[in-house]
Amino acid sequence: MYIETVPNRHSPPAVLLREGYREGGKIVKRTLANLSHWDAQLVEHFRLLLKGGVAVESVDALMTIERSLPHGHVAAVLGAARACGAEKWFASAPEELRAVLLAMLCARVLAPASKLATHRMLHDDTATSSLGRVLGVGQCQADDLYRALDWLHEAQPTLERALARKHLVGSTLVLYDLTSTWLTGHCCELAARGHSRDGKRDDPQIVFGLVCTASGAPIAVEVFAGNTGDPSTVATQVSKLKERFGIERMAWVGDRGMLTSARIEQVLRPQAQDWITSLRAPHIAQLAAEHGPFQPSLFDQRNLIELTSAQFPGERLVVCRNPLLAAERARKRGELLAATELELAKIAAATQRAEVDAQERRDRRRDGAGRPVRDPHEPQRRPARRRSHRGRLQEPGPRRAGLPLHEDDRPACAPGLPLQRRARARPRLAVHAGLLRGVAHARVLEAHAVR
User: Fold this and answer.
1) Residue 389 needs a FRET pair 20 to 30 A away by CA distance; which of 170, 296, 342, 417 works?
2) What is residue 294's DSSP assignment?
3) Is residue 206 part of a domain?
4) What is the extent of the structural domain holding 246?
């Protein structure tokens, strides 16, 4: 017996169980069963049995897969945390919170989120990784995470001192910077409006500063009100490092907005601290005017030169050339020039097109005989009518006669006419021809006499 697959032209292939035998010296085959309705995997298993294979129990019957959670990244982060001694950091915490604290630490690396979202990630019913099951916190409550936060707030000075003893020893380099984050709600005491680095000017924010080692490892963090300026936090950080961590001498590295001249003179110099910062544009302009333009050949060997100036006594001034910044500026300059040329070309083309259109309109205004022709898109213009204000005598007609009126005594309109006819009043007067005899012999001719 064997299984044969018979292709069909317009339908799925037929899977048939057949048997071959001899009849009259010929091999004849007959169909024993139609297996077309079987599952493809079951057909393959049956084919193996017919070839002499061994039947085994189905894997689905031996093992049931309920859920599969990602584990590789969890194993990597959890292994790194344990290698750093993270479990010892939480040794003084309550026993039921130690695993929760370690899980929260790993969750901040795996998927930073709010505490409610972290609880959903750890819980067995809504887990997105194997972190909760590995640490045994799959059935923790959301309040457990908030209790862990309360313990961390109280233990923060102790944890920061332990990190400082390990990474900040003796004279060392300390990196410090601030950032901000916006928030919603009305219950945060530190929330205030200030310089927003997120572009959320209408939302309150908080400011927090981070102290790091030279390699960028975080040591201490402190939260300030949202309207706190960057330079005003330097003094508190210097006191913290000297008094809490026992570091006598440090070299502070900050930008020109952090380490200002006032902070250097009021905080760092009195406490014998070193600093590295950048000068502001006015100071750079004064140094450039004092030492003259710098030749590019001065930066060939070490890419920096050292200066001294009476404006900064006892300080080292280093001028460095940044080739990346120079290339970026050259690229931007080239792009600006190209964009300017493109806009000028557009303006020139538009001007030329306007001149051509104006010439075509002028040509269309005149025909071959030199007579002006009106453009079909222009409104028809009527010549202005010239009016003469001189009195004139109308030609006598069969029923009317006209006399000149005195210009000074002429009324604006006839007083007896209705409103709809006053606007059409003219400096003419129609009288009966028979009245002209009496008017002609009058000694004094006045306007009211004619009226």
Assistant:
1) 417
2) P
3) yes
4) 169-278
